[in-house]
């Protein structure tokens, strides 16, 4: 089987997210899993680390690459990242799912197209709906 090097990488900074959502590992793990499924990805594993006194990093290993979220509840901030290889899974769907679950006040995001002769970066105007 020949694999494509083409990939889409969505990077998003979320501001104004509820402290309790950003500090709830079970909630975040469920949302990360559901967001992967919403994009058509295959989840291989989800790992996490809880920080003291608050905050977390969660990482979903996908057959198609990865999704991650790093939370700073005390600042209402989350950094999310979705990268998938090939054309069949769209990480934007995962990011949009997470936006609908986390309901940020503000989102800054980029789309990076990878694995081609030129790296392409575009600013996205994402909203949570």
TrEMBL record:
InterPro entries assigned: AdoMetDC_C (IPR042286), AdoMetDC_fam_prok (IPR003826), AdoMetDC_N (IPR042284), S-AdoMet_deCO2ase_core (IPR016067), S-AdoMet_deCOase_pro-enz (IPR017716)
Top-level EC class as recorded in UniProt: lyase
Co-factor(s): pyruvate
The keyword Nucleotidyltransferase is annotated on this UniProt entry: no
Cofactor binding note of this UniProt entry: Binds 1 pyruvoyl group covalently per subunit.
UniProt pathway: Amine and polyamine biosynthesis; S-adenosylmethioninamine biosynthesis; S-adenosylmethioninamine from S-adenosyl-L-methionine: step 1/1
Catalytically driven reaction(s): S-adenosyl-L-methionine + H(+) = S-adenosyl 3-(methylsulfanyl)propylamine + CO2
GO cellular component terms attached to this protein's record: cytosol
Site location (Cleavage (non-hydrolytic)): 64-65
PTM characteristics: Is synthesized initially as an inactive proenzyme. Formation of the active enzyme involves a self-maturation process in which the active site pyruvoyl group is generated from an internal serine residue via an autocatalytic post-translational modification. Two non-identical subunits are generated from the proenzyme in this reaction, and the pyruvate is formed at the N-terminus of the alpha chain, which is derived from the carboxyl end of the proenzyme.
E.C. number(s) listed in UniProt: 4.1.1.50
GO process terms (BP): spermidine biosynthetic process
GO MF annotation list: adenosylmethionine decarboxylase activity
Entry keywords, A to Z: Autocatalytic cleavage, Decarboxylase, Lyase, Polyamine biosynthesis, Pyruvate, S-adenosyl-L-methionine, Schiff base, Spermidine biosynthesis, Zymogen
NCBIfam families with a match to the protein in the record: SAM_DCase_Bsu
Function recorded in the entry: Catalyzes the decarboxylation of S-adenosylmethionine to S-adenosylmethioninamine (dcAdoMet), the propylamine donor required for the synthesis of the polyamines spermine and spermidine from the diamine putrescine.
Name of the molecule in the record: S-adenosylmethionine decarboxylase proenzyme
The organism's taxonomic lineage, starting at the top: Bacteria, Bacillati, Bacillota, Bacilli, Bacillales
């Amino acid at each position: 089987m020949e694999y494509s090097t083409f990939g889409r990488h969505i990077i998003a900074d979320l501001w104004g997210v509820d402290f309790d959502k950003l500090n709830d590992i079970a909630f975040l793990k469920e949302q990360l899993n559901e967001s992967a499924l919403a994009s058509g990805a295959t989840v291989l594993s989800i790992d996490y680390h809880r920080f003291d006194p608050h905050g977390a990093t969660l990482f979903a290993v996908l057959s198609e690459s990865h999704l991650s979220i790093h939370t700073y509840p005390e600042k209402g901030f989350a950094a999310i990242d979705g990268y998938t290889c090939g054309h069949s899974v769209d990480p934007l769907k995962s990011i949009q799912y997470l936006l609908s679950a986390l309901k940020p006040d503000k989102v800054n995001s980029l789309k990076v197209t990878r694995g081609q002769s030129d790296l392409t970066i575009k600013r996205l105007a994402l909203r949570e709906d």
